[in-house]
Structure formats: C-alpha cells, structure tokens
User: Fold these one by one.
Assistant:
Number 1:
Amino acid sequence: MVFLLTRDRVQITLKLPKFSYIPGETVSGTLVLEVLAKLPITAVRIQLEAKEKVSVKEGRHQYKDEFVHFQKLITCFGHSKVSGRKSGAELDVGTYTYPFSITLPTSVPPCYHCTVNGSRGDLVYALVSTIVIPSSLDAQRKWCIVVRATAPEQQVLDRLQTAARLTNKYLTVVKAAGPTAAASAARTRAPPSSR
C-alpha cells in the first residue's frame, strides 16, 4: 500500500498559449489539476508576480533588496485569501480545469538579468499556483514568463510623424520638378526589362 502526503495527491499543470508578453497584454491560461486521491482543499489560487531582486557586493559586504512591481492573486475555486476560512471542499479523483486571465499594467517594466563584478540584479515574472490544503502543506508550482520591452508610445508617434514629413518632402520635390522629372524618376526605379 502506498501512502501519499496530502500535497502529493495532486499534479498541477499550466496551459498557456505563449510564455512571452508585453505590458498591457492579458495572460490567459488554464490551470489543470490531476487529483490522484481524494483531496481536501480550501482554495485553488494563481498569482502573477513581478519581483525584482538586487544583490550588490562591495568588498566583504553584500547588500540585498527586493521590490515587487506587480502582484495579482486570483482565487479560481474555493475561499478567497481574505476570507480566512480554513476548510472547504473535497476533490474526488479526476481532472479539474480552472481558466484564468490577468492583465499586465501598461507601466510594468520588462524582465532583465544582469551580473557585474559579483553584483547581480534581475526582474522575474512568475505565475505561482497554490492548492490550499487544510491542516497540511499546500501544493505549489511555479512557472516563469517573459515580459518584453516595448517602445514608448511617444517614440512611436515621433517616428510616424518623421516618416510622414519625409514622404511629403519627397512628393513636394517630385511635383516641383514637373511631370517629366516624375516619369524619369519612375523609370530609374523600375527594374530593367529583359529584352
């Protein structure tokens, strides 16, 4: 006979259409629980967190700091964390799916990792699933996602305006030169014909 610890009675899988996002995008997926033996639970939760960690080495001293840029917790099933309830339901053997969606703010910074002379810094986005089990250790699983940098909106607008100015300037030059110059410019751009 095999005895499973309570948290070993469940296998947790995450299904995402992709693992790379930009600020403002929605991270949507499905949490899949494979329950191997009856499992008492209080809740099924998923959290998206962006945590920056910095460790600076200066001589024999090392300074560490952490900062959470973004954190969103969703209770997919059961009692919310703020309710404080310790008991809930019992899941029978089987497969359970819990869809979720979390929208990244447009202001979140991109992921990074940097190491210089023994000092280190990184910003990691992680999805953490937690199966809250009363009177036992919770079952947890963690997956990292990538949040890429995007060009600031003003930078994109500036480039579009510059392109429009250059196009208008070119059209003005061609019009000023007259129809013969425009036809000549078109012929010089045309691919040579095979004779």
Number 2:
Amino acid sequence: MAAPSGGTGQTGSLTECYDELGTRYQLPVYCLAPPVNLIMERSDEDGTDAPEPAPNNRREFQLKVRLSTGKDVKLNASMTDTIGQLKKQLHSVEGIEPCWQRWFFSGKLLTDRIKLQETKIQKDFVIQVIVNQPAEIQN
C-alpha cells in the first residue's frame, strides 16, 4: 500500500482488517467502539506467568502481527504461548500497553488466556491487533 502523497497523517485506518492470509477487509466503525459489557481480564493478578517449558520442548517461530497503525511486527512465539504473554512481548517491543491491545484472528477476538495452539494459527498467518489507546483526560 502506498503512503499518502502529503507525507503526514497515519498510514492505516482502524476500519481496515486483515485475515490470516493478509487479505484486506473494511470493518464498520461500530465494531471498533470500546465494548462496555465485557469483563476486564487481569492477567497480572491471575498468575499467567507460569514457568516456560524446557527449551527442547518449545518450538519457536516468527508470528506476524499487523497493528491498526499499519505497521507489521514479528514476534517470537511458540504454540504453547498465551495471547497474554504475546501482548506483553509486543509491549516490550513497541511500548503498547497490553490493555490497549485487542487481538483478532479470523474475525474472532482472542482473549489473554487462549493459547496459540487453540486458535489454529500457523506460521505464515497474520494476526490483527487493534491499538485502542484511551483518550487523554483533560482537567
């Protein structure tokens, strides 16, 4: 996708979504409104930092993540990793707080406790991450 000729402005739109093969789709704006009826997951409190499996059992691969800002990021992932662990990895790479990240694959929202093996994500698939930073509070 070519950058706008003006040179300023963002390169992506929150209404753009990509499936596991990278095909682009347009989302209705109402899909991007912050949900008001969801229970917030507290991954820091529920002990998701379980010890990692031994290195010989852990098969890592590069997981392609496409941010709603238009940027593609590759993360080191294993099929035993949870989405919560990958959110923390994306935070360490890009500085995006895990609570601002909403991960989607094949049109489904991925919650923090889901493991990659449960989602049927394979090596060359793309996961869409909607970055939903809260508006700054003005006094």
